[in-house]
Amino acid sequence: MSTPIRPHLEPSELGTKEYWDAAYTTELANHASNPADPGTIWFADSNAESKILSYLRSLTSPSPTPSSTTAATRTSSSPAATAKASTPALLDPATARILDLGSGNGHLLLALAEEGWRGGKVGVDYSAKAVALARRVAEAEGKGEIRFRVWDVVRGERPRTEEAGEEGEGEEVNGEKEEEEEEEEGGGEWIGDGFDLVLDKGTFDAVSLSEDRDGEGRSGCEEYRRRVQELVRKGGFVVVTSCNWTEEELRGWIEDEGLEYWGKVKYPSFTFGGVKGQTICTLCFRRTEDGI
Question: Which of 12, 31, 109, 200 could form a disulfide with 240 if both were Cys (CB 3.0 to 4.6 A apart)?
Fold first, then answer.
């Protein structure tokens, strides 16, 4: 099926690179004066990071149970729900390659490393200031093997997956000169042959708030799914967290023949005017054999 047309959000400064460059310039200065300050951890008020980690743990279990009391849940509407109990582990923390889109200060990748995810980890952000901050924070935490690159998921050079394996993982950061590099790095060696897990914690939201259009008038929202699908290996997962879209809307933008809905993270809900909702949503999609 093709991605349905959805109403676009009103553009905001939160959808501009200038806004994020300024924000991360401030956070770089704060970290320089206080290395214990990693900067903003997005959706911390919803405990999103912890709940996402819990959900990912469920994908490493050989026999996850739908009745689990953890934050992870698969719903009956998922096309793969009936096969869940009998499948082997879907992700191996020892080998899974992980990409964080719009990685900001890199905190989510640091948390995954602390959780024991030992495969290669790469964070990309279109703000060179964010990449500089992430590198500094990772070095301060003793996690210099995590790689951070400047790259725009929507408008950057198209990904080029290649049989690169893990070559280059853990390469040394080249100090201040590399941190100050403003030029975008193309999608090549760091992509390798794709990723087993692609994470997005608020980046699609920022894309949704941009007024930028390509030469054919398409918004970043309309390009996002295809670009992300090119990054994930077949059988791999894409996990997207949003505070701007409902679950139904987010599925409408991302779910397609190449990315099937797999499950979601459960957050506390509220009821207002007889309508039940929640402040954020995190959905998981799995790359199928179809698409692209």
Answer: 200
